[in-house]
Amino acid sequence: MRKYFLIFMTVQLLFLTSCWDSNEIEDLGMIMGIGLDYNDSEEDIFSMTNQYVVPNNIQGTQTGSASGTPYQNLTLNGNNFFQIIRENSLETDRPPNYTHLKSMVLSERLLEEEPLKQLISFFLRDHEFRRTVAIFISKEAPADILEVEPTKEMFPGVQLKELTQNHDRSLYVLDTLKFGEVSKKITEGASFVIPEVGINKGRLRLLGAGIVSNKNEHVVGWLTPEEIGGLKWITDEVNGGLVAIEEKNAKEDQAVLEIMKANTNLEPVIKDGKLSMKLTVNSSLRLAEDWEIKRDVFQEGWEQELKTAGENKVKKDIEHVISVAQEQGLDFLEFGTWVSIKQPTYWKQHEKEWDEIFSNLPVIIDVNFTITGYGTQDIN
């Protein structure tokens, strides 16, 4: 038995080949960020920037030091992206590897001229390209975006993705839009928004969002950061943030409410064959900052004026974003999704004419605030 056991163990060793296909990090062309843009040359249509990791400049690696930049951006031009990637071989001995890619930036000009589905089709087929990659749009050149020196992270491509991590602390920040979600939206034939990034005083900054039309998959409009707040209330994506209220007496006498909890319910209502949408917001907030020193928070009913003012402000923000969407006839508010779920019979009958119906859809908005407490305030 011992003889057979030794033979068995010897045979098993043949299958324990360990990392036979491993590659040293210094030999990999790891890409952290990609920028896609138009090229002004008549010969080549597209421009592609790859942000390479430079292992030798990373402190802590076997051969690394802190004397150099840990990344290098390589921008090349071509008539298609596969051609551009192959062109990298002419300037570096490390072919690009996208398994660690964090973010992709698309230029405004590119998305105004080329359908988004066409732009990403190559990357959808690439086995190295992860569906968790964050997608952004910029009115500035993506090559310039990827050149901005990061303040917190080691690579601009990583810091770019991390910008959306505060979506639960600010009304003006959208959650990360992942590559897989973009593919899903396009497949469903839905309009949606892409977070916009720009450069502010030498630093990367979120600036709002670009609106992608389901009709042609081009960027056809923009949302400001304030309009992002209204959009998040509509789509039930508010997990935190602030509601700033200017008092009627003077702008200096303002109050700030911190959002503790929020919930939005969308209910399609059919009456006499006509569709309308009832949008109900319920939110719990606390008084975080108060510049009205005469307000007595120990007096019963002190919060009623703030409650009403806060509700009116949020309702106004919601109405504004709905008007933007309806003027363009683009349902990036996801109303159609709720109609298909809660009124499936109506949806099947009117799906093909939804854009027209959405543009004239009556929306009843009800905002309900509950102020649960107060912070410190200036008391004479």
Describe this structure in words.
The chain has helices at residues 2-13, 81-87, 108-113, 116-125, 142-145, 156-162, 179-188, 225-234, 304-328, 335-342, 344-350, 354-359, and strands spanning 29-38, 46-53, 71-78, 96-97, 103-107, 134-138, 192-200, 203-212, 219-223, 242-246, 254-271, 274-290, 363-374. It has 380 residues and is of the alpha/beta class. The longest helix has 25 residues, at 304-328. The chain is globular and about 80 Å long.
Q: What is the averaged pLDDT score?
A: 88
Helix/strand structural class? alpha/beta
Oligomer: single chain
Report the uncertain regions.
none
Order of helices and strands: HEEEHEEHHEHHHEEEHEEEHHHHE
Q: What's the number of extended β-strand segments? A: 13
What count of helical segments does DSSP give?
Answer: 12
Give the fraction of residues assigned to helices. Answer: 25-40%
Largest sheet: 6 strands, mixed
Rg over alpha carbons: 26 Å
How far is the N terminus from the C terminus? 92 Å
Helix and strand arrangement:
Layout: H1 2-13, E1 29-38, E2 46-53, E3 71-78, H2 81-87, E4 96-97, E5 103-107, H3 108-113, H4 116-125, E6 134-138, H5 142-145, H6 156-162, H7 179-188, E7 192-200, E8 203-212, E9 219-223, H8 225-234, E10 242-246, E11 254-271, E12 274-290, H9 304-328, H10 335-342, H11 344-350, H12 354-359, E13 363-374
Parallel strand pairs: 1-4, 1-5, 5-6, 12-13
Antiparallel strand pairs: 1-2, 2-3, 7-8, 8-9, 10-11, 11-12
Task: List key phrases describing it.
380 residues, 4-stranded mixed β-sheet, 29% helix
